[in-house]
Amino acid sequence: MDSDCSSKQYISHSYISTMAIVEKTISVTADNLDQKVNLMMAFMPPTVDFDNVVPIAWQVFSLKGTDSESWKWNSSSAGSRAIVDPNNATVISREYKPINVGRSSNMTQDKTVRPPVYKFSAPTTYSGTNARVVNQSGAYADIGAGFVTDNGDTFNTVLVNRRVAHTAEAFVDYEPVLTIWATADYAEDQLLDSGVTTIPTLWSRNLLTITGAQVRLAVSRDKTTGAVSIKLQSAPSAFQTVYKVDLAFASPGIVQNGVSDIAKLLIGKGYSLKYTAKGYDTEAHLELVLPPKVSCNEAELAVIAAIDASPTVYGKVFVKGHSGAALLKSETHFETWLDINPASPRWFGVITDGPNAAFNGTNGEAFAQANAEDGTSEIIEESEEAEVAAPVKAKGNGKFGSVRAGSLRGIPSFD
Fold first, then answer.
1. What separation in angstroms does the CA of 379 have from each of 10, 235, 352, 364, 396?
2. How much is the pLDDT for 149?
3. 166 with 37: CB under 8 angstroms?
4. Are 177 and 215 spatial neighbours (Cβ–Cβ below 8 Å)?
5. For residue 215, which of 232, 190, 194 has the smallest C-alpha distance?
């Protein structure tokens, strides 16, 4: 026996989809809001009459400070038997059925049992191009339109076809134009009326026109006027990689100008940089955001080349330490990065299908010993008195042969 539940309800049924489904996570984040803002989201059809096909308040929530809310959405379509409370116009969806566009399902009522049971038939093709429900229940019925999540276990109502007559059809696919208002006039799952058109729209967009799986929205307030606005935030570049390097200079007095000269040359080659100063010290920390298809090793060689080309620091700075990281996942207020070990193939831009542990899966001592035997880990002795050294390439033609290009440290690279 079914029981009433919210319009995002859970009913066991078979979930079949033959179409590619577009999935997105919608995140709405407060941008340091000093006071609470009440927000409402709904899917508004391009034309709406508020009589026959009526949108509902899909989500109603409030944000303050740096609060954040998120929801799952996808492009599936489904129909439901909707029940509208006559007292407050809130919607409860009961039985439902995923229906692809170009398919039709009959909603019937079995009156031989008490209480009567509503069922949806298996969708079949028909001559139309919409996802359709035909009311075969023998009476007027409200038919909900929406989408399913959680592998088909959850139905989300977004529109209601009101008072569909017996044998009449109702379309349950919809154009996913997500619209947001700043209002507390409606409750979640409540039918909207024409009054919503008098409320200023903060943001509206067809979700299918937004690239990527993340829809990030930031809510801010103008400090002068107090007006609330919503902006779509840009997604970070896919597979973004950063190279980090600690530089040691001969004296504190050349650090600032030296970093400036190095940065100008690197920016001209497509890198963007972040410079962290350590006060009046001889060290500087740089982080380079790499252009597409550029490895950490190439970035390091670019740093060395920039040092070589700078008369203020040539021969007076060396690489003290280095590391790298690749962005794996970005969410609101949270990012996941993968460390790139300088001894791994990924450092050199080689992405393998197998394990990518440091030292090719062996321990450090075994790796060093193996490379020493084939002459690829030969140590280069430096003269402490030499301020300028000509470029020297190490002996050995192995994978990790060292190069030295004006800096005072050998850097691994491919031959």
1. 66, 44, 29, 17, 11
2. 87
3. no
4. no
5. 232
- CA nearest 372: which of 356, 394, 391? 394
Q: Average of pLDDT values for 164-183?
A: 94
Helices (H), 229-295: 255-267
Residues 6+ apart with CB under 8 A from 245: 285, 286, 288, 300, 303, 319, 321, 322
- In this structure, which amino acid lies at residue 46? P
* Secondary structure (3-state) at 300: helix
Is the link from the previous residue into 45 a cis peptide, with omega within 30 of 0?
Answer: no
Alpha-carbon distance of 193 to 59, in angstroms, equals 16
C-alpha 53/C-alpha 174 separation (Å) is 11
Distance CA 44, CA 197 (A): 11
Q: At 63, list the tokens.
A: 């944000």
Q: How far is CA 129 from CA 17, 176, 188, 332, in A?
A: 16, 17, 31, 37
Give the whole-angstrom CA distance, residue 247 versus residue 55: 60
CA 213/CA 207 separation, integer angstroms: 10
Centre a 10 Å sphere on the Cβ of residue 307 and count the other Cβ atoms it contains: 25
This prediction's pTM: 0.57
| CA atoms of 229 and 235, how far apart (whole Å) | 19
User: What is the sign of the dihedral through the CA atoms of 205, 182, 185 and 69?
Assistant: positive
Q: 331: pLDDT confidence band, cut at 50, 70 and 90?
A: low
Instruction: Return d(Cα 113, Cα 292) in angstroms, integer.
Output: 65
The interaxial angle of helices 255-267 and 296-308, nearest 10 deg, is: 120
Mean pLDDT confidence for 169-196: 94
Residues 6+ apart with CB under 8 A from 321: 245, 246
Q: What is the rounded CA–CA span in Å between residue 38 and residue 100? A: 35
Residues listed for the chain: 415
Average pLDDT over residues 298-308: 93
Tell me what pLDDT residue 166 has: 94
- When mean pLDDT is compared across 27-36, 96-105, 227-236, 375-384, the lowest value belongs to 375-384
Q: Residue 133: which of 144, 117, 149 has the closest Cα?
A: 144
Q: For strands 59-65 and 117-120, give the pairing.
A: unpaired
DSSP code of residue 195: G
Q: And the tokens for 364?
A: 């450090």
